[in-house]
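Thread title: Can someone regenerate the structure for this chain?

I was given the following input by a collaborator and told the matching structure tokens would be attached. They weren't. Posting the sequence so someone can regenerate them.
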Amino acid sequence: MSRANAPPRWQAELALAFVALVWGSTFVVVKSALTDISTVYFLALRFSLAAFCMLLMFWPSFRSSNGAAIRKGLAGGGIAGIFLWLGYVLQTFGLKYTTAGKSGFITGFYIALVPLLGAALYRRWPPARELLGIAVATAGIAILTLPRGNRFVMNRGDLLTIGCAIAFAIHLLVLGYYSQRCLVSAVALGQIACSAVLSTISLAWERPSAIWNRNVLFALTLTAIFATALAFAIQTWGQKYTSPSRTALIFALEPVFALATAVSVGREALTAAALAGGALVLAGILLVELKPKPRTQLEQVEN
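Best answer:
Regenerated them for you:
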């Protein structure tokens, strides 16, 4: 694709880091709200409200765009949305049978799966520096999330969460593909609308229940508008100008931001392990970002 009018890659990747900040900072809010509303019901409302907000956000763009381009983007976004929704569902049901720490680590493993799946798809490995950065960041996530003093024994919740990690990795690759070839606004809306439809259909298997209070309303508003409509619009735009592998690496910041939020509101203590894990995640990202020169040609091949 032509990059004559493209912004500097650091701007796109800084925007992706902002997305990781938004997602990480909402973890405490969502966890609190889920005690008063069923999970799939929450997801259905979150994605439906977000899709409506996105439609309002992008309506002026759609009115001036070619109808065929909009349909193509919506279709591509819909494919990405299938894997996005599947990741959320597998992660949620996996949490019923495993610990939050193990779930966080296994989910975070998608940052290592992205270059592996990308290599299989594009028949080209990412640069050695990126692979090393991903390995360092994955080790940091392990230190941040795995429970202390316990053996890592696999159970069915862990297997479901492995499926979640695979789904999220595929979502990043699919989104990276379509965001660079289709109308970004249509792709962004398509994935969220698809997730809303699939979540609503899933209510047939989980009876919706909710205690409507300030916590639930705040969590729905925050996640639908900021952590979904705005965040996924920014992610779709950001992935237009960088590779899926680098996107996954930047998203390794999410558990770091989640921990920082939990510590700042006084719910968790800042431990030496947390500091070490966060430092490794940052080191892995800096290892990739602080490189001698850009590899534009290689990234075009990967994408």
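Residues 13-302 form one domain.
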